[in-house]
TrEMBL record:
Keyword Flavoprotein: no
Protein name listed in UniProt: Protein-arginine kinase
GO BP term, example: phosphocreatine biosynthetic process
Function: Catalyzes the specific phosphorylation of arginine residues in a large number of proteins. Is part of the bacterial stress response system. Protein arginine phosphorylation has a physiologically important role and is involved in the regulation of many critical cellular processes, such as protein homeostasis, motility, competence, and stringent and stress responses, by regulating gene expression and protein activity.
Gene: mcsB
Source lineage: Bacteria, Bacillati, Bacillota, Bacilli, Bacillales
Binding residue positions for ATP: 27-31, 92, 126, 177-181, 208-213
NCBIfam families recorded: PRK01059.1-4, PRK01059.1-5
Keywords assigned by UniProt, alphabetized: Allosteric enzyme, ATP-binding, Kinase, Nucleotide-binding, Transferase
Regulation: Appears to be allosterically activated by the binding of pArg-containing polypeptides to the pArg-binding pocket localized in the C-terminal domain of McsB.
Catalytic activity, reaction form: L-arginyl-[protein] + ATP = N(omega)-phospho-L-arginyl-[protein] + ADP + H(+)
Source organism, top-level taxon: Bacteria
Family membership: Belongs to the ATP:guanido phosphotransferase family.
Length: 356
């Protein structure tokens, strides 16, 4: 493997697989936060401590601790260029926070990019597992298996009463963040999301944008995740999230059916206008592109568009982000240049889809 492999392909291999309820759920993610007992948390530790932790984890990788999950590669964040870091963030393989550190961050990535183990982010170790569709339980099983492999080698910071100890108090306990990424255009079009979000928050869950905390819900894509990690078991956290998500899936499907039934021609017009913009624009900004892509994906899911695959939303949502555009262009682009390049990429991708 090489760094270029992770940078040059917009869609990770796991994203091409079909998952349960994948017409609405784009992905499921589990993240476990862990710290080593004999080291200060990353907010206080020294660069020597950080390098020692990376060396230890790299040693376990070389010993084949994770071999059952296929080839895996460790990348040192300090060796990455700014643009390369941005691409990995856009692919959800590393967090923005990991890119802020110097000389002491790293990530281990699996060949198909469904496993990401960040080292020296907010915590010493953050294990992330990704699955297509609604497969939170499956993602948890894999994350726990990797966690067990590491715990057999290292001594985690753990308290019998509190559970796993973390840099941020909100992660103390299980150290678990479970999240799903949903495409909810019908709930937006029918103006139900403003009512649903407060109800979700009251259940101890949080709704965020496509890139997590502080990000915008581009293209009607939302992340829903747990807020509470202390006092609840992993099974309860995942079970509660799954139950809420299944209700949202039902509401989104109902909203889509209502739109097709009551506003069929208007919805069809909206879908094909957006497809026309994507297929013909010479300049397009990120927000307009993501809105049009959302409409096109809705058109695919409702049967209006039959010649495009579902994966086109996943692919173009990432491909048209600023980092990827510049990666493909071979260097930095001004905002106006990115808008031109974005339009060209989308046109070319749609033409390729039509030929296939």
């Amino acid at each position: 493997m090489s760094l270029e492999k992770f940078l040059n392909k917009a869609v990770s291999s796991w994203m091409c697989a079909e998952g349960p309820d994948s017409d609405i759920i784009l992905s499921s993610r589990i993240r476990l936060a862990r710290n080593l007992r004999n080291y200060k948390f990353p907010t206080l530790f020294s660069n020597d401590d950080a390098r020692e932790i990376i060396g230890n984890i790299q040693g376990y990788l070389q010993q084949g601790v994770f071999k059952e999950y296929g080839p895996m590669e460790l990348l040192l964040v300090d060796d990455l260029k700014s643009l390369q870091k941005r691409v990995l963030v856009e692919k959800h393989l590393i967090s923005p926070r990991l890119t802020e550190h110097e000389s002491h961050g790293a990530v281990i990535l699996s060949d198909n990019e469904d496993i990401s183990i960040m080292i020296n982010e907010e915590d010493h170790i953050r294990i992330q597992c990704l699955y297509p569709g609604l497969q939170i339980k499956e993602a948890l099983e894999k994350a726990n298996a990797i966690d067990d492999m590491l715990e057999a080698k290292v001594d985690f910071a753990f308290d019998e009463d509190l559970g796993y100890l973390t840099s941020c108090p909100t992660n103390v306990g299980t150290g678990l963040r479970a999240s799903v990424m949903l495409h909810l255009p019908a709930l937006i079009l029918t103006r139900q999301m403003n009512r649903i979000i407060p109800a979700i928050n009251q259940l101890g869950l949080v709704v965020r944008g496509i890139y997590g905390e502080g990000s915008e819900a581009l293209g009607n894509i939302f992340q829903i995740s747990n807020q509470i990690t202390l006092g609840k078991s992993e099974a309860d956290i995942v079970g509660d999230l799954t139950s809420v998500v299944q209700q949202i899936i039902a509401q989104e499907r109902s909203a889509r059916e209502a739109l097709v039934k009551t506003s069929n021609i208007q919805l069809e017009d909206k879908v094909f206008r957006s497809l026309g913009i994507l297929a013909n624009s010479r300049i397009i900004e990120t927000k307009e592109a993501t809105e049009c892509l959302s409409d096109v994906r809705l058109g695919i899911d409702t049967g209006f568009i039959k010649h495009l695959s579902k994966n086109i939303l996943n692919e173009l949502m990432i491909l048209t982000q600023p980092g990827f555009l510049q990666q493909y262009a071979g260097g930095p682009l001004r905002p106006a240049e990115r808008d031109i390049k974005r339009a060209a990429f989308i046109r070319e991708r749609l033409k390729l889809e039509e030929r296939d």
